[in-house]
Every structure is written in structure tokens, then in C-alpha cells.
């Protein structure tokens, strides 16, 4: 799970960092690390997942019309 960003010729470091951050975000690495930072009880995981599912269902119902 190593991310490799090659700096192009005459490319500013800022732009390379931006590309790296985008790549990390697309592959959900940051999100995964933050989620694993602390232990989460199984009942809390279920509660969080149910909450997300309810929210997406509500959005689908709202914009289906």
C-alpha cells in the first residue's frame, strides 16, 4: 500500500503535494487511517452504517421525484 508520486521536471513541490493528496483521497487511505485510529465497538459500527444508509435513502427519495 505504498503511494508513489514522481516529481516531474520543473514541477513545483506544491503541485506534487497536491497530486499526492488527491491520490490519497481517491484511494480512501486518509479516511481509513482516521477510522482505525481508535477502537470502535461493533454496535457503534452498525449504528454508524445504519445512519449513513438512512441518509442516502432519504436523499434518493428526495431527488427521485
How many distinct helices?
3
User: Approximately how much beta-strand content do the residues carry?
Assistant: under 5%
Uncertain residue ranges: none
Structural class based on helices, strands and sheet pairing: mainly alpha
Q: Number of domains in the coordinates?
A: 1
H/E order of the elements?
Answer: HHH
Q: Mean pLDDT score, rounded?
A: 91
Describe this structure in words.
This protein is mainly α. The protein has one domain (13-64). It has helices at 13-26, 29-36, 42-64. The N and C termini lie far apart (42 Å).
Question: What attributes characterize this protein structure?
Answer:
3 helices; mainly alpha; 0% strand; 65 residues
In a few lines, what is going on in this structure?
69% of the residues lie in helices and 0% in strands. By secondary structure, it is mostly helical.
Blueprint (SSEs and pairs):
Elements lengths: L12 H14 L2 H8 L5 H23 L1
Amino acid at each position: 500500500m505504498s503511494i508513489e508520486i514522481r516529481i516531474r521536471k520543473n514541477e513545483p513541490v506544491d503541485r506534487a503535494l497536491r497530486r499526492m493528496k488527491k491520490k490519497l483521497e481517491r484511494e480512501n487511505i486518509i479516511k481509513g487511517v482516521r477510522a482505525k485510529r481508535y477502537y470502535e465497538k461493533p454496535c457503534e459500527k452498525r449504528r454508524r452504517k445504519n445512519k449513513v444508509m438512512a441518509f442516502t435513502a432519504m436523499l434518493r427519495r428526495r431527488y427521485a421525484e
